[in-house]
Amino acid sequence: MQPRLRAGILGGGFMAEVHARAIRAAGSEVVLIASSSPDSSARAAARLGIHGIAPNARALIESDAVDVIHVCTPNAFHSEQAGLALLAGKPVVCEKPLATRVSDAEDLVSRARISVTPTAVPFIYRYYPAVREIRSRISHGSAGEMHLLHGSYLQDWLALPTTTNWRVDEKVGGSSRAFADIGVHWCDLMEFVTGHRITRLVSALSRSHPERGSTEDAASILFETDRGASGTLIASQITHGRKNRLHFSFDGELESYRWNQEHPGKFTASNQSSESTIYSGSAELSALSSQRLAHLPAGHPKGYQDAFNAFTADAYASFQDQNVDGLPTFVDGLRAAIITDAVLTSAQSGRWVDVVGPTDGTTAVTNNSLSVLDAALTQ
Amino acid sequence: MQPRLRAGILGGGFMAEVHARAIRAAGSEVVLIASSSPDSSARAAARLGIHGIAPNARALIESDAVDVIHVCTPNAFHSEQAGLALLAGKPVVCEKPLATRVSDAEDLVSRARISVTPTAVPFIYRYYPAVREIRSRISHGSAGEMHLLHGSYLQDWLALPTTTNWRVDEKVGGSSRAFADIGVHWCDLMEFVTGHRITRLVSALSRSHPERGSTEDAASILFETDRGASGTLIASQITHGRKNRLHFSFDGELESYRWNQEHPGKFTASNQSSESTIYSGSAELSALSSQRLAHLPAGHPKGYQDAFNAFTADAYASFQDQNVDGLPTFVDGLRAAIITDAVLTSAQSGRWVDVVGPTDGTTAVTNNSLSVLDAALTQ
Amino acid sequence: MQPRLRAGILGGGFMAEVHARAIRAAGSEVVLIASSSPDSSARAAARLGIHGIAPNARALIESDAVDVIHVCTPNAFHSEQAGLALLAGKPVVCEKPLATRVSDAEDLVSRARISVTPTAVPFIYRYYPAVREIRSRISHGSAGEMHLLHGSYLQDWLALPTTTNWRVDEKVGGSSRAFADIGVHWCDLMEFVTGHRITRLVSALSRSHPERGSTEDAASILFETDRGASGTLIASQITHGRKNRLHFSFDGELESYRWNQEHPGKFTASNQSSESTIYSGSAELSALSSQRLAHLPAGHPKGYQDAFNAFTADAYASFQDQNVDGLPTFVDGLRAAIITDAVLTSAQSGRWVDVVGPTDGTTAVTNNSLSVLDAALTQ
Amino acid sequence: MQPRLRAGILGGGFMAEVHARAIRAAGSEVVLIASSSPDSSARAAARLGIHGIAPNARALIESDAVDVIHVCTPNAFHSEQAGLALLAGKPVVCEKPLATRVSDAEDLVSRARISVTPTAVPFIYRYYPAVREIRSRISHGSAGEMHLLHGSYLQDWLALPTTTNWRVDEKVGGSSRAFADIGVHWCDLMEFVTGHRITRLVSALSRSHPERGSTEDAASILFETDRGASGTLIASQITHGRKNRLHFSFDGELESYRWNQEHPGKFTASNQSSESTIYSGSAELSALSSQRLAHLPAGHPKGYQDAFNAFTADAYASFQDQNVDGLPTFVDGLRAAIITDAVLTSAQSGRWVDVVGPTDGTTAVTNNSLSVLDAALTQ
User: Fold this and answer.
1) What is the pLDDT of residues B356-365, one digit of tens each?
2) Which end of chain C is less congested by CB atoms within 10 angstroms, N or C?
3) Touching check for A156 and chain C: CB below 8 Å?
4) Measuring CA to CA, which residue among B277, B276, B283, B292 is closest to residue B324?
5) Which of A275, A282, A283 comes nearest C276 by C-beta?
6) What is the CA B165 to chain-centroid distance, rounded?
7) Minimum-distance CB partner of D222 among C220, C242, C253
8) CB of C130 within 8 Å of any CB in chain A?
9) Are C240 and D271 a contacting pair at CB < 8 A?
10) How far apart are CA A79 and CA A71, in angstroms?
């Protein structure tokens, strides 16, 4: 049994709580926290049951008491703080978006490569058993060629024009909101599950409440993949009644798979002659990777925190040189930044734009020399 | 009570059966049928319980025994047969697509105007109580400004590459398949319910099984409307497990409405503080137009044939000079042809294209001088 | 082709409308109506488009213009009017309950037997394709022995204590309400689909609003069947939010079947290794009897009126000496009366009571000498 | 901040894992484990990451290293091991059934009272935010008088006759299986949420696979409550396709509430004019007790482990003399044993039987002198 890693958390909001629970569930300890001010740090420390408070981000990152850095601050701070962690040679879990500019994300990936520091970005929807099961089935050819990849990610917490949040402020949240916040989750999941990569896209943004700033409330894209599939995605934060509905339908020649994040314990596999509902935890899960994640019997719902815990456990295992399959790293964070940039560019130009990168040289630096992107294809 | 209209049906397939049942449910009689050959006509007549057989389409149209013409033949014949009916001065119910070319559809609308002949095209999803209720609520401002109009129309009957049908043959079915068959239903419903009109769109077509011909298996569009909303639609005939799933979410500033054609007896109205499921036939239907259509108590499911019957009853009432609200006519058939043409054009050019028309002069000829397109706005 | 039967309808309410539409859809004509008063008859005639009005029930029944009698009056009148129809030697479709006393129902069955007059009682839920398919699968042994037969029939139209209706008045509606109105539908469907017959039951009645009279608002039963299964049913008219939810789960050794009347176009067939959703109209319907009823493609919803139409078409075919499978007759109406009586008796005594009959001698008189009860076993 | 409690776990199966995760999530430590044999203990310790192994249950219970005892062994051992824990004066979390005989459960409650030792039994479905919200609404009178309390708890893991498990062996599992395993969860939840108590019941048991032993595969009951409501429950372990479906509908005069454990993040509240779906984590949760449990935004699913964690956190808080609302204790375990006994008695006699106790004297000993049963009424 390896020594426990000691974690430090930057940020004191909702995501800091989720990270803290996950770190503890992985058997590790949160030893330090630093939020935006001493007061804020003290409140967060009390709320989360953390004994140590660092005076600022840099002090936390450089503290000898801390082995792993968790970046849970507002978007604009991510790349700088992640960069400091890499400079300190410490493994880092950085909330998405990894950076609000592609160049910053590229820079982080380079630094991680050079310093050989392991990283992770919580694209945690990869950590539901149903998701792994579908990925396994597609990679084994159960569905034949994939033709149509479509779905949506719908929320309503910004539906009313009067609602606001730091995410709405372009300076803090970045120049994309709905797509960068939730659209990238869908794209990451699609590429992870199908092994396809988006090569071109055309987009449209909706700014329904311009009084709230310039970032989009909703984004839609049409896309093509490197293996000839077509796709459609709508990401919205203004669809009343949808709380956190990430839904996909991946349609192949022989079979279609559908999954809804709000009911994560099951998915449907349909072919011409039958539509089956398959439950996580049942004997129908054939992939080892999905069985590993389904540690409750079927019908005992697994939730968001369970997925987050599984991601964190894998990240920490990776930080301790174990091989894990499918861990999202800074390379995946860079990929999300590249797609987001393409979405903004297309919306402005009204044209289809190409989506390129990261290149192979870059992907080669994923943790444990395991190419996450290749893993999707060869599992 | 007015004299019963006597109907003649062109075509002997599945849709001919649906029309025949609807004509009888409206209290009228089917007196003649003509299918593709004498044999086929005889078989269809026996199956549908029709006593008279016409030797060919022209003979049926010109027969003195027939007051109303129903065009239920393969797509390529629609415009010619509808044109003959107009020439004979007889009201005509023509299956969609009204024509496979915009110019033909325009020509039919002109002829209908000049001959003052009433027409109808079965965009029958307008005839569910839930649809009318949502339309009424939107027109009364319950949702505020509409921002996002999104949804899908998914089928699977052509999912396997080996499945074929006359619809697959471009010469018989027309140059668009998935969009012209089902995408136009969604667009008609969206424009009917919201009162918005598509002004621009960009599209992508998927031809997953090229061995089956050149028409698309799936089509996706991003669109903008004349009132500033954004929209997304995916229409597919190759999504395993989806039988006939027309689904929409119309998201306004204050409320979102969702409806699924496969469970037509209810819809959801969501706002920031609650998500309500509303049942057709319950006291919650506030619009007269929806109460009129809901002649069964809540929980007693209404189906496709009920909606078709209601459409047909309204068409026949219109043919006898009664005012009816929301009847789809050749003008709506032309609108569908124009949108389909824009979808094909955009897919080829990779550009956003404008969607224009029909012009006001044209819309003025809808039955009973009632502008269907205006009705959506002023109900 | 046989001559059309001419129908007369007793009663002018909601059910009269449903019968009228079904008669017409079957290609027959409604020639006479008689409601509770001349005024009421005139209004109903106008609303339903019926040209002839009879001065009273007896006159309608005895009119030479009428071949078939439909009894759609309040419950207390059913047995007398059905008896008059039998006396006149005319086929009769009588709404359930056939009679509010077992002895009256027995008397009607005897009279039908002696006069060799065909009869029908609209247990119309038998006429959904999904129901026939499940029945066929069970009779072919797909599920092995049936062990648990459970479900519910839930409505809310009497949930508020202030709501009332003639059904609430014991003198007009009979001494059982929730069970006699809707519970019997579930029991008929269970016995029809599984081929099991209830042999013993214990019941509890709920009279939540005693100010509304003495009939029950809800009834629950535990039961045993002649083949060793256990069962549970709850029937309620006071469950807010449930409009007309008849639901069953028939659990066998190898497979369970579930169906919900509010979404009639599909059912689930589950076994240990998979849960399949099966759509009416799809290629997965294996029984001829279900294919016959599913005349729309999968995903095109069939509704309550479609089922009623199919029942009526079969009843009329039976009245004209055709063999039809599974038509509910007065024998089934008597069966419902016997079960209702057992429910009331058990609720009063607090004991399990036996459910016996009708005897074989009685069942032998079903239309066309076809034993409906046997048909469930031998299809 | 109080000192952390150190936990010892008896048993090494699935439930031991769930307890271990919950103990750690509560910030405490699992220091010792003892399973059925040294080998089994070693394997469980490795799997669960526990460093200390006790040679047997007694040694674990009496170890100075352990503050709290978790009893996760097969049913037959519960009462003896819980008794030893009480003898040692250590707080104990005992899996249900607390005992397989009423007298043993009564004895444990007495001993806990005399020794003033706090206890807990994981009726963890009380720990979903939706459940607390419904409880609060009912106690505040939102639904008026409750009339009908019905539902089911359905599983399929014992559907095939060949499946077996220690639970099937009466000597190890006790004389009731389906009811004692899952039926009691439903009854506990019903009494907790509504504040009603079952006073009488009649039951039927189904032993579908007698070759598997004498305990029931399914149990159904009709019941009455002390406040005049009627109820129905079916508990089954042989319903194919149902994995862990605990469902209830609590119907009041003004409103009905429905919840399904497999989709725990939402419930429906229906009245005559609307059916609302309410999401955990949304602003619609009005009860403090539900807000406290919903620490994720709406749409981020909470699962079984989250509920178990919340139960465990409350149990540990209670063990450290904090007041917590609604913690299930040995009194509730005794209540479950009494109801189970009544179910077995009624099934044998075929009669309604009374359900009495525990008496007030007994309930007064719940942790922190807080009467859990009273709390349901006065919250």
Assistant:
1) 989 643 343 4
2) N
3) no
4) B292
5) A275
6) 21
7) C220
8) no
9) yes
10) 9
